[in-house]
Amino acid sequence: MPVVVFRRNAEVYEAEVKENTNLVVRAGIKQFPFPHLRYECGMGKCARCACRVLAGGEYLPPPNWKEKKQLGARLDEGYRLACQLWIEHDIELEQDDLPVEP
Predict the structure, then answer these.
(1) DSSP-H helix ranges across 2-98
(2) pLDDT band at 42 (very low <50, low <70, confident <90, very high)
(3) Domain containing 56: what range?
(4) How many domains does the structure of the chain reveal?
C-alpha cells in the first residue's frame, strides 16, 4: 500500500492508504488520516487543495486540463491539485497557505 507523507503548518503526517486513493474523496467521507488537508470543491475548480509534490511525482500522470487551468505556472514549481490525483505509489506532499492564482 502506498505511503503518503503530508506536510502542513510545520507538522508532518504519514500514513498508508489503499492503492488508487484520492485524498480529497477520503477527506470528504472522513476516512482520511491527515486532519489539515485544505480542500473545497473536489472537482478541480477552486484549487484550494493545491499541494507541492516533494517526492513521488514521477509516478503521477501528467497534469490534466483542470490542473493546467487552475495552477498555470505553479505546475513548474511542482504543484498539483490533490483532488485530481489518484495515489498508487508513495508520495510526499506539502500544502502551504499561499493563494493559487493561475
Answers:
(1) 23-28, 65-71
(2) confident
(3) 3-95
(4) 1
User: Is 101 a domain residue?
Assistant: no
Number of H helices, E strands in the chain: 2, 5
Helices (H), 1-102: 23-28, 65-71
Angle CA 94–100–102, to nearest 5: 130
Q: What is the CATH number of the domain that holds 17?
A: 3.10.20.30
User: How much is the pTM?
Assistant: 0.88
Distance from C-alpha of 24 to C-alpha of 37, rounded to nearest angstrom: 8
What mean pLDDT do residues 63-88 have? 95
The mean per-residue pLDDT over the stretch 31-57 comes to 87
Q: Give the integer Cα–Cα distance in Å for 84 and 10.
A: 24
Task: Indicate the DSSP class of residue 63.
Answer: P
Joined together, the cell numbers standing for residue 1 give 500500500
24-50 exposure pattern, b = at least 16 Cβ within 10 A, e = fewer? bebbeeeebebeebebeebebeebbbb
- Give domain status of residue 100, yes or no: no
